[in-house]
Amino acid sequence: MSNSETKTDVILIGAGIMSATLGTLLKELVPEWDIKVFEKLENAGEESSNEWNNAGTGHAALCELNYTVEKPDGSVDISKAIKINEQFQVSMQFWSYLVKNKLVNNPQEFIRQLPHMSMVLGEENVNFLKKRFEAMSANPLFQGMEFSDDPEKLMEWIPLIMEGRKWNEPIAATKADLGTDVNFGALTRMLFEHLEKKNVKINYNHSVNDIKRTNDGMWELKVQNLFSGTVKRHTAKFVFIGGGGGSLHLLQKSGIPEGKHIGGFPVSGIFMVCNNPEVVAQHHAKVYGKAKVGAPPMSVPHLDTRFIENEKTLLFGPFAGFSPKFLKTGSVLDLVTSVKPNNVLTMLAAGAKEMSLTKYLIQQVMLTKEQRMEELREFIPSAVAEDWDFVVAGQRVQVIKDTEAGKGTLQFGTEVITGANGSIAALLGASPGASTAVHVMLEVINKCFPEHMKEWESKIKEMIPSYGVSLLENPLLLKDIHTSTAQSLGLSEKEMAFS
Fold it and tell me: Coil, helix or strand for 317?
């Protein structure tokens, strides 16, 4: 073992979209800072950020029904949808800045225009969708959304879903043309290529095995080169743990009090992918349905057009599964070794509370291909088994923590855990993750570098014109941003601009 030590300003653990975004932001704000990245796999964006491991939805809350809730009085609460849409606009502005300044090229390789749709069956669901549409379309963020419960209109929008369908059940859909399909794997790789040009050292095949505080307040990491087996010590003033499901173990090793009483529950996913080009050609949208009772939000069924390696593909899913691994490339001991004396009660409380989720996951794991085909036929009545193969999606680790709602509450969003003095931050959780990466990383910067925020503010506003401003309350700024991001990202301005 080598004990040679290197010192640096910033260490990013994990070469996914979050580290890529944080590294790019910091390099724009303080080009002179020394940044190192450690990734245990061979390439960037191979876990949750990889294009085959997530839905590729630019989550702007245009189609995801779980971001809107029907209240007891029958009205629809869209506050979460507003929040997520505004966060996605932040990502769009930053990507637009990168393209305009030639820090990344060819935006069509990572983002494309694609209608986002919600589709429901049954009278009760149709009534809900109509109320949701009325609440959202009256809001500047969701202007241009359309609703239809007319089978002929739906035949124009979603021929593959409507063909061969019995007309005896009410059906309705909403359509938002300003939706996007985002290849987060491609974007992650582009950002790391850019960072390498800015002298950021990216160490692939390097695993961070331990992390601890030194007497002078720095962080010391024990990093193993997986090729040679040698271990080196690296110290940094600031560490970001962006290792997807692997973040929880490193957060626990850091020993910070903020990392205690937190657990993780892994959920895996399986997509069905269409291998028949004729079927693929008949669909052009991301169509989200309604989650089954007991299902985690990431298991909302959707039929997605995707562009992967510039080829149009069609995916359906995800079917939830269970694996004790925290990463696709993780260990079957990940879940067991994450249970510590300080979080065991939190984990047990969650287990007792989430019986319906556990039951749902067991049922999903037991599904045969024919049973999965039956679920697909709710979307595509004419689907035949030989046209569809399976692909295993990424692992997601849902955060479990003690909240006001009680001990061991399962969290379904993205969580940032920050040390009290701002010298360390860890990212945990799942969707809408990648879509809101820029907003989440600005939050990290704000929490961890408060003393610099004043001097950095004008640069942040150059990158993100809406920084610190509510787009909802500034419709003219919103219109300007839609127009300029559409232009620089090569999206259709006609559809992105307001009607």
Answer: strand
